[in-house]
Amino acid sequence: MNSPNTASTLERIRARQARVGVIGLGYVGLPLVVEFARAGFDVTGFDVDASKTDSINAGRSYIPDVAEADLAACVRAGKIRATTDMSLLGEMDAIDICVPTPLRKTKDPDLSYVVSAVEMIADHLHPGMLVVLESTTYPGTTEEVVQPILERRGLKAGEDFFLAFSPERVDPGNKQFTTKTIPKVVGGAGPASTEAAAALYESVVSRVVSVSSTRVAEMVKLLENTFRAVNIGMVNEIALMCSSLRPCLTTES
What is the pLDDT of residue 171? Predict the structure, then answer.
């Protein structure tokens, strides 16, 4: 650790006294908000959609994987609040970015949501803050896109603040593998960032797998998605083939 601020952040995370913010309150962000709150953190959810923030503050869940009773209990306990006021980002010790990265017509990822979120964080970045990108993207995004924006006012990643990538691995509707039980991969911009991000997730998920860099963590997500897509495609092709061969495969009794 290179400054008292960063050391203090790690201590606050381990004591579950850190103030956690989550940007993007969809099927990735809202379950994460609830898990952080259930682990004892004070959590603020940020979204540009006021209907989402209003629902959360009223204890109403719009995500099937988030039980309304769990959300409502955390809201009543004062552990969760949601807002569209991005100026409150400056009050956070740790921020997770869970915004979408849809594909453009040219099949490359649209990073506009990520860039917008990072720019808002940059306006309120302070020493000791932990910033984690979870949005699905290509290897190099954290280092080449996110880090320069955050460093534009002079603070350095790994020295003055923490920066990491931890890919979302949510499987909506799966009752066995949830936000809490799916292993979390974490790669930081240097060892201190990896340690801070791993400490944050270790408090809410069953297993954390630390890797050597943000690029490695980004590649893990790319490999996982590719493996899944290839297998789904292969099964679909075999199903079509079997349908065509059905008369030949049918055994007469």
Answer: 84
Residue type (1 letter), 15: A
Provide the mean pLDDT of the chain.
Answer: 94
Q: What does DSSP say about strands 162-165 and 208-211: parallel, antiparallel, or unpaired? A: unpaired
Whichever domain contains 142, its CATH number is 3.40.50.720
The backbone region for 107, taken as left when phi is positive above 0, alpha when psi lies in -120 to 50, beta otherwise, is left
Name the E strands within 155-195: 162-165, 184-188
34: which strand partners? none
Backbone angles phi, psi at 194, to 5 degrees: -65, -45
- Specify the number of domains making up the chain: 1
Rounded distance, CA 106 to CA 123, Å? 31
Q: Are 210 and 186 spatial neighbours (Cβ–Cβ below 8 Å)?
A: yes
Residue 64: in which H helix or E strand, if any? none
pLDDT digits (tens, 9 = 90+) for 176-227: 899 999 999 999 999 999 999 999 999 999 999 999 999 999 999 999 989 9
Domain residues for 119? 4-249
Closest Cα partner for 155 from 110, 195, 189, 183?
A: 189
Predicted pLDDT at 188:
98
Dump pLDDT digits (tens) for 38-78.
Answer: 999 999 999 999 999 999 999 999 999 999 999 999 999 99
Scan for tokens 């030949």, then name that residue. 248
**CB–CB of 238/230 below 8 Å?**
no
> Strands 130-133, 208-211: parallel, antiparallel or unpaired by DSSP?
unpaired
